[in-house]
Amino acid sequence: MKTLHNQKRFSISNLTLAGLFIAIAVVLKSYLAINLSFTRISLAWVSIMTIGILLGPVIGGISGAIADIIGFIIFPTGPYFLGFTVAYAFVGIIPGLLKKVVLQSKSIYFFLFNSAAVIVLFVASVWALFHKNELILENGTIQFNTNFFLKVDPKYIEISFIYYILIAVVLLLLILLPIFLEKVLKNNQFIFPFARLLFMVTITCIICSLVIDTWSVSKITGLPILVLLPKRIFVNFISIPIYAYLVAVLLTTLNKYIVKNENK
Predict the structure, then answer these.
(1) Does pTM surpass 0.70?
(2) Of 110, 111, 169, 206, which alpha carbon lies 20 to 30 A from 70's?
(3) Domain span at residue 197?
C-alpha cells in the first residue's frame, strides 16, 4: 500500500496529516458524539485508527492521547481520568502494531476469526440484553424494550418472525461481506484488504472499549464492570463493522490523493 508512511516517520507531511486527523477526532469526539447512560458513541476512533494504520503505532498512539486531552479541555463531560486517554492512545497503537502482521498472514485466518467474532459478539449481545432486561421472555415469546437507549420506563414489544429472519440475514451478511469484498471484488474497492482491516478494528475495540474504557467508567462511577459491560457489548457489535467500513473508505481516499500528488 503506497502511502505517506513510506516517508520518514516524523516528516513534515506525516505530522501535518496526523494533525489534521487529530483535529477531526476532536470535533467528532466533542461535538458530534452521542452520550448514553452506559457509553459515549462517536466516530473519533475512526480517525485515530486511520492514523495508526497509515503512520504507525508511535504517531498513532501520540495522536490518540492528544486528541482525548484536547477534547476534554474543549468539551469536558465529567472528571478527567487517565484511563480514557490510555484507551485513545491504544486505539492508534494497536492497528499500527497489527498492520505488518496481518498483511503477511493468509486471508483464511481472518475470514475464520471475523466469522467467529460475529457469532460470539452476537451471542454476547443477546446475553447482555437479557441480563439487563432489555429482552425478556414472556408468555412463550421474546420481547424487546423499545426504550433501550432512554432513561425511562421500559416499553416492550413482541419480536415477530420477520425480525428473526432479518437478524439471520444481517448475521449472514456480516460473515460473508469481508469474503465478498476481498475475494469477489479482489480489493478493487478498498486499498486495504477488508477482512484484515475488520480483524484489526475488532481487536482494537475489544481491548480499548470493552476492557480499558469499561474499566475507566467503572472507576469513575463506582458501578461494577458487569453492570456496564452488557450494553457496551451490544453497541460494539453494531459499531465495529461501521468503524471498519469508514476506516477502509478513509484509507482508500487518502491513498488515491497521495498517489495523485506523488505522480504530479
Answers:
(1) yes
(2) 206
(3) 4-262
